[in-house]
Amino acid sequence: MSLIAQAAIHQLRLRLGEPAAKWDAEHFARNLFRGLEGDIRVSRDTVLVTYYNAPNAELLRAHHENLAEKLRQQGIEPRIPWLYDFHLDFRFK
Prior knowledge:
- The protein is α+β, with helices and mostly antiparallel strands.
- It folds into two domains: 1-34, no CATH class; 37-93, no CATH class.
- Helices cover 42% and strands 22% of the residues.
- The protein is built from four helices and three strands.
- It has helices at residues 2-16, 25-33, 57-64, 67-73; strands spanning 37-43, 46-52, 87-92.
- Strands 1-2-3 form a three-stranded mixed beta sheet.
- A hairpin with a 2-residue loop joins strand 1 and strand 2.
- The longest helix is centred in the first third of the chain and has 15 residues, at 2-16.
- The chain is globular, with a radius of gyration of 14 Å.
- The protein starts with a helix and ends with a strand.
- The relative contact order is 0.16.
């Protein structure tokens, strides 16, 4: 599980760009994760995660909003088997 978390955070760092790309784990947690607020809702077959006050929201929005469609365009099945075949989508406000 920790390798999955490291991979996800690594991808997030790359997408956020500077200065977050060079932050150590403590700095990343303090300046990014502690400041995030959000909620999780289910709409039809999609788990919708909404983040408020996310840094670089425009950049994150470009990568993560409408995620199921973006995955389909890449030939990737967007359903998540261990999440009861739900899709996952994000919103940044």
